[in-house]
Amino acid sequence: MTARTQTTLPETQRGPAERLLDVVLGGSAHLWHHRPGLDVNGTWVAVAGADAKALSRGRKASPGLFVPAAVKLYGQLLELYRLNPTLMAHFASYALTQTDWRDLKVATCALMLVQEHAGQPVRDGQGAIAFHDDDYRSIGEAMVLHYVRRSTRMLTPKAVLRVAELLETPEIARLNRAAGFGDPASRKPPLGRWKRVAQKWLAAREANLPMLQGLVKAGYKETLKKLARKAGYKPQSQGFFEVLGWKQKQADGGHRQVGLHGLTLVKRERFDGLSEAEICEWIELERLSYKEVVGRLPKDVGLTPAILATLLPSLSDRDLRLMTPTLEDLGLLQEPSVKARWERAVANATDQRSLNIAKNVRGEDVRRKLEEASDNAVKKAVAEATAETDVRVMFLIDKSGSMEGAIEQSKEALSRILAGFPMDKLHVAAFDTMGMVLQPKAANRTAVQHMLSGLKASGGTVHAAGVHALHRSGVRIPAEAKLVVMVVGDEAGEAGDQFAKAFHACGYSVAAMALLVSVAGARGNTVRSGAKQLGVPFSEVSVGQFADPYQVPRVLHALMDAPREAGASQSGWVDRVMSTPLLKVA
């Protein structure tokens, strides 16, 4: 008999650990989009390439902050904070120093700057100060001020500005007021300590003009101006205005004293009238960046192979991957030195955006290399999650009749992730009422797609059949290794205790279990209840999350991080978050 029940724990039973995993496993990777989109039931979809269904159901979403995603993510963080402020504080520190999720850094920083634990004095019965409350707002300040030379794990000027923009969004301001973080009668949104720390951040750059000049060269000039205006920053020297090329005039009140006279403004001159060779010489002499150059090129010259080749040292690995179609069009991938630099960028990929870029290139070899970049991102996530422990992974793929209409989505998700696992530590089986062991011919996306191509939805559902099939094929897990089981399907099958017994019967000791939810109709509870019977942590994530190129590595990292101690009731990833030192203002 097939058991069908509610997919998730009731709200009253979901603790901080479950909610923290929800942020990573169910959150949106992007809050800000730079191109027109559609709001399809709260999900952002690019207008370009949208199918007919999305075009008919979606509402226009202008470039910029996608409010539904922002409200969802901030609301999740707020619920986590309400349940456990200390966990939220550690998570904010973890988000900044241990992840590359830029919008999560912005959202966690915003919350920490406005939440109520601000170091207030706590008085005893006689009115004397007994002690001071925790000052978690200082963690938000430390997130803004955190600086590591050449690191990507700190807030950019744009991110510092976005913290304020997020807090000023009416829907977010309402959430903060409802949480008691601001005056409910005030029309102004609660900003907490943002203005104060933004002024400190700007003052540090003004005191170090080479740092300020570097930000201008990186293309942040207008962002810095917006930041200064919003924070009400008052520069102490004319150098601040000169570097930004920012002409000043006296305010109506006549109170301005700095930057009104004798400014030597730094202006960017266009390259009109210069030849290609002269432009290249200028780039090398001034060490100009790509962003500094593209807006200054004469129309009759444009971006040529020689100019782009000269700009290559200023491009990051991510820039190079994104510019692959341009490099191909200009013929630069035929140049050995450029190709070698591009291939290094491919090898260093940390997301799967290359799969989208691959659709816009012509060469088969280039397309295959971009797919390798996608596989490399997953390999890095898996390697980081398993660095401290020998982890073996068992994937069980539901191909029963109830998966009709969902099996193709399962295949697409698996094609994005399976190639990232070491083949000697990966064990895959598909099942209906009978299990079938699967083995990719190679550790790449093409081989995984070939392996999955023959799967068709039909038959009944016995999850345990997949476990027994792997055991019969000779799969054994070393005693010192930890086994993570990932089931792909709707978990509608046998009772959970029967599923759990299969692992005991085969001698498999499970450390953690996850469900990659792929549903065509109703849901069951075989996997969740099986994990409960085994007494191991359980996580679930929709296979739809694997369509997001930025979400795949971080989701896998959280799913793969098995508990550090045997018998632990929560994910090892949650343990890792809690062990992250709290950030402090230097």
From TrEMBL:
Highest taxon in the source lineage: Bacteria
Gene3D superfamilies: von Willebrand factor, type A domain (3.40.50.410)
Coiled-coil segments on the chain, per record: none
Pfam families: VWA_2 (PF13519)
All copies of domain VWFA, residue ranges: 393-472
Protein name (database record): VWFA domain-containing protein
Gene source species: Corallococcus coralloides (strain ATCC 25202 / DSM 2259 / NBRC 100086 / M2) (Myxococcus coralloides)
